[in-house]
Amino acid sequence: MPRFSFLEWPVVRQLRDGDVLGRGTSVTSKRTRSITPRTAEADHVAHSVCPYCAVGCGQLVYSKDGKVTQIEGDPASPISRGRLCPKGSASEQLVNSPRRITTVRYRRPYGTEWEDLNRDTAIDMIADRFLEARRNHWEDVDDKGHALRRTMGIASLGGATIDNEENYLAKKLFTAAGAIQMENQARI
Amino acid sequence: MANADCIIIQGSNMAEAHPVGFQWVMEAKSRGATIIHVDPRFTRTSANAHKHIPTRAGSDVVLLGALINHVLSNDLYFKDYVLAYTNASTIISEEFLDTEDLEGLFSGYDPETGTYDPASWAYSAPGEDGKVADASAFEGQEGSHWTAGRAGAGEAFGSGGPPLEHGIPARDETLQDPRTVLQILKRHYSRYTPEMVTEACGISRADFDYLARALVENSGRERTTCFAYAVGWTQHVGGAQFIRTAAMLQLLMGNVGRPGSGIMALRGHATIQGSTDIPTLFNLLPGYLPMPKAGAHDDFQTYADSIGRKEQKGFWAESRTYAVNLLKAWWGEHATAENDFAFDYLPRLDGPAGTYQTLMRMLDDGVDGYFLLGQNPAVGSANGRMQRLGMSHLKWMVVRDFSMIESATWWKEGPEIDSGELRTEDIGTEMFFLPAANHTEKAGSFTQTQRLVQWREKAVDPPGDAQSELEFLYELGHRIREKLRGSTDPRDRPLLDLTWDYPVDEEGEVDPEAVIAEINGRHETGPKVGQPLSGYTEMADDGSTSGGCWIYAGVYADGINQAARKKPGYEQDEFAHEWGWAWPMNRRILYNRASADADGKPWSERKKLLWWDETAEKWAGPDVPDFPADKAPHDPGDVEAGGAKGLAGNDAFVMQSDGRGWLFAPTGLVDGPLPTHYEPVDSSIPNPLYPQQANPTREFIQDRDNLNAPGMTGDAREEVYPYYFSTYRVTEHHTAGGMSRWLPYLAELQPQLFCEISPELAAEVGIEPYGWATIISPRAAIEAIALVTERMTPLTISGRTVHQIGLPYHWAQGTHAVVEGDSVNDLIAMNLDANTQIQNSKVTACAIRPGRRPRGAARQELVEELQRRAGLQLDTGDQLLTAPDFPEGTERQDIDLQSGESIEETFDLPRHESGGEDQRTTGTEED
Amino acid sequence: MGLLSGPEENPAADSGWGHDHARKGFFTDTSICIGCKACEVACKEWNRNPQDGDLKILGSSYDNTGSLGANTWRHVAFVEQKKDRIEEARESGRKLVSLGMPTIGPRSGAAAPGGRAGEDFTGVDTTPPDTPEFRWLMSSDVCKHCTHAGCLDVCPTGALFRTEFGTVVVQSDICNGCGTCVGGCPFGVIERRDDGTVSPKEDRGRVQQEVPNKGTANKCTLCYDRLVEGEEPACAKTCPTTSIKFGDRSDMVEQAHERVAQLHAQGMTEARLYGANPEDGVGGTGSVFLLLDEPEVYGLPPDPQVPTADLPHMYRTAAVAMGGMLVATALAFLGGRR
Known about the structure:
The structure holds 3 protein chains of 3 kinds.
Chain A: H1 10-17, H2 30-33, H3 38-41, E1 44-49, E2 58-64, E3 67-73, H4 86-89, H5 91-95, E4 105-107, E5 115-116, H6 119-136, E6 138-141, E7 147-158, H7 164-177, E8 179-183
Parallel strand pairs in A: 7-8
Antiparallel strand pairs in A: 1-2, 2-3, 4-5, 6-7
Chain B: E1 6-10, H1 14-17, H2 22-30, E2 34-38, H3 44-47, E3 51-53, H4 60-73, H5 79-85, E4 109-110, E5 115-116, E6 123-124, E7 131-132, H6 151-155, H7 181-188, H8 194-201, H9 205-217, E8 225-229, H10 231-234, H11 239-252, E9 263-265, H12 274-277, E10 284-285, E11 289-290, H13 300-307, H14 319-331, H15 355-363, E12 369-373, H16 377-380, H17 384-391, E13 396-401, H18 406-413, H19 415-419, E14 430-435, E15 444-447, E16 452-456, H20 469-484, H21 493-496, H22 512-520, E17 522-523, E18 545-546, E19 581-582, E20 611-613, E21 618-620, H23 643-646, E22 699-701, E23 723-728, H24 744-747, E24 754-757, H25 759-765, E25 772-776, E26 781-788, E27 795-797, E28 800-802, E29 804-808, E30 831-832, E31 844-850, H26 858-870, H27 903-907, E32 922-923
Parallel strand pairs in B: 1-2, 1-8, 2-3, 8-9, 12-13, 13-14, 23-29, 24-26
Antiparallel strand pairs in B: 4-5, 6-7, 10-11, 15-16, 16-19, 17-18, 20-21, 22-30, 22-32, 23-31, 25-26, 25-31, 27-28
Chain C: E1 24-29, H1 38-47, E2 74-82, H2 83-98, E3 134-142, H3 150-154, E4 160-162, E5 168-170, H4 180-184, E6 191-192, E7 217-218, H5 224-227, H6 234-238, E8 244-248, H7 249-265, E9 272-274, E10 287-291, H8 311-337
Parallel strand pairs in C: 1-10
Antiparallel strand pairs in C: 1-8, 2-3, 4-5, 6-7, 9-10
């Protein structure tokens, strides 16, 4: 603990610093004197892109100890020049929302509540159901004998907020499975 | 946009929906540009424009058509540009008949199917009288990037005749031949007068003159005008044609391919552009290759030829190459020349399989499982009630999202549980909610609205069970393949032969760079084996190269992730070529050959972009040329070779098979070669231009729960749904609310659903400012707080007052978000544009009354009470052909909607639960 | 001149910081505000301020946060006006100019902000548009960081202080929540943060947000914690149209004067400045605004006065009174001896 010093008495500082009315340097607290922005305390800054509309504003994602601490505009972006709209400005809240669900939830047929489910089990169950639905509604040929080679038992909707790489895998997997009913926001 | 001298924003509320993009409009404004906002509502965009012109939603073709008429009849168009770069001088087949001749229809209409045969819209070939149709280029919307607009074009494939042999049709450079496109245009738009604009749009003569003057004065060699639109144009029946009208106008004014010109499609989602380029859409494969169609594309060559033939001009001539590379990327060593590169592994379409058709199949128990990847259709799609009912027919559903969105909770707390229509205990749908990683928790690329691919670095790991789509899909694919291992069923070969061996990092996660490298493509054999492709021109059609999406070839050139380049904008020129990567080939302005004149000289010093450098014998300028780099301006093109070699030195529109910008679209659109005004389906205003009331090709879905307002067929004495509403976004929220209603900082800014109405309408129906209002359509009833405001203007249309109501659609019923409200999309019917399969959500007839809506079952009773009063039938509003004297010897399908079946009979129609297949038709047939 | 009222060059220097710190401030140009409220959100996000209000539509156009307060440190007002009101605003603005508001000749072409050298504007319609039938004003309000700050002058604990940037900031570790400053602010900006504003629908078991600095006075810090690292305030950084500008206060005032002159040249005589006058009741403000109508229209006081402005006078009067009383007392004693 630092030695107590009369020199740090406010009234002494007030007279010494010329802050005669005691409204400036003489009243600053220790916390005030050592204040730093959390952007300066971040241990990692990722260059990212806003997930909302299609303008594609640059974002700087500051994180510390594996947790996002601040998201703000990236001044280097020629698209947005560091600026963000209210949604982009709120994206730290999107990331760290206490309302976010971070575990798998499962509702059995005719169930009235959500239940817990291990993620590994869930994906395995989905794979089984995928193949069953594919079989149930498989169409080899149309009524004129033209090849169809498809299933109508599986549909998907989504894609406008997920990455190009993810859309690519989705289209590749579903098309190979013969599941043609794929749609996304681009048509809605 | 900052380089524009005039910006016309129509069909978009840019300041609210794209605030950060709007900085460029404000910058143009500070440089002296004129900003005009044409919109039914006075919005935050209007507040920052020089002028707001209130208009009637859905009447845009009248206004834009009148501008076309204005510039054509007064010789105000950019003649040198039009002659050099558009098909204005092209001569159209003698068999073509215009809406002028056919009461609002074009030649080729088949009233039985509600579709057109476009054969008669074809170009005339030189020295021939016969027609030569052009089935090659389906890039029908020059200058626009609303790629979903091509969706229906994929559907229309195979409908044209043989392609143009060498892309040089008959032309009359004097533009005098009555069959030239320009003359056809003049006749077609002669009805579109300023007086008609006043009558149909409610826009005064003074406002029209202001707009016309601003456009004309800010176009030409020295100046450019830019248009901006968004879903205010697309979400209409006929929306693709709205955009085309603007594209045609911009071509006539020389505002395509030049700085500060063009049509900006303002898209709404982070990578909605990417998700059409690399589509999760039923009708497309990556790079706008169509999904093959049963019967029409049974073999690979037929399929490839239907996209573009080798001998035609432009880059679609290589379509077979692009398809080979895609198939090679997907099926690797199993895709060989001998098996047509596994073309038969692709499933086939036989009609639209869009989200609304899928919904109808769900209601018929024809779909078992449904994946939602960051989408909330219970709130975001038209006719939300049917969406939720459809979900109750599924066997299982996978919802991947951040929070408990309404599409995950409908079985527990949806409006239908409230009303007693559904009971949780009776719903058999098995639900999987899988938490998704957000944009900071995974690396990957988004493609923004100007085709710019931008890479995101990963900041942190996802929490708990949350994982990326990439991880989930990879894992799902992996397990499906494991479960099928050893299968001898030929239908499993495409899955088992799929290339699915992506490298994983030490934590077992797929490397997204490996995926973008596959999308980019690589050399499979030869001296460069394993090396990434530098661009699509390096693609071969013999299987020696592969590439998952040809237009993205080059994004991983030199093994460097070009999308991840982050050289600051302030260290570069305004094109910022070293920030991210734009497809194709990092070009920032498409069709930029048109920024120079036919001789290769800039149109003006002020609007200089590209020019032909005589000494270097190359195109020079700050942007990457969208043209063969060393093709001289007067090069005639090697017509025998086709493809890029076939292009002449002034064929600026390199994707079109004639190298020209299309003022007249001989193919590619299913509802006509020229945009024509039709009234919205719900409109009770007679089409002021033609006897044909509404778009004759629209797609509708007949269902007890998807009834239409009577429109023109209603009883004029008592209009049950006398007002029209449009849905839209506000700045403070995002789409169906999944990413905004859960956030307190956004929720508090717009906490409740509201409707915007004029003081006149408020007085007419007795609604107090900031009091409750109930809005009722033939599908649903909702309640909203009334914002009574001068920002809404009643319009006088065809002698009657038309009131428009504004309704943002971000809210929904549920207990998980910070704020809740009724879901506006419940009000909307599924009436689809036949080109795009996009629903109309901008003009819907409704009733409005003061007070809150009834609770419980009484809510739907109110809806049905109004349905009865309006005398709605299953087929109300579904009559496609209304031109009484439509020739071609077909009888008009007369459906008397007011007599015939009694109301009670209609209301005894079975609902989905009791198997109403026979009562429900999907598609375009007249019932 | 200047410790408690009137013009003052550098308030930081008078608070012990010496003269090497430039005074920082905002220039909020409401003529280019698009009302997106990014400033409100970026401010709350940076400062971790809790959500405000009871999640109901307030009944003032698109504004649902109401006013500046303990939690909302940037606030966007929305004002819908008809033609007659616009004409009045234009007229009152014109009068302000004829009353001696500083003007600068019309600027256009290369000299215009953002304009490119050599730009030719001939042919551009520079005549003012006809008075529009209707307009929708948007304006982002913020703490004024007054030259003579009432809140600071009345604070009995030293919790409020004048920073080296000339701004006025609350130190929540010192503030005891007495609330004296609340009455001391002529703009009604500073407010005590209470505990129960966060989640009005608690019956649903919603997740509570952590509320920092409960029970203390709160207001805009002009992002003091960012300024110390040379970063700009969150609101100014995020503003999509640069309606909110940040910089040395003297530059801000100069830009503001240039902008008002530019708008007047374009016929928008309704433009006027707020807070740029060093002779006003608070000695001018650190946050300068360009408004398009009377301040009252935006909910701003037309003639704010720092309550301590009269303090010297009051002390003098008190001293005279005290002296008088002393004299009277003395006289009384003297008289008593008689």
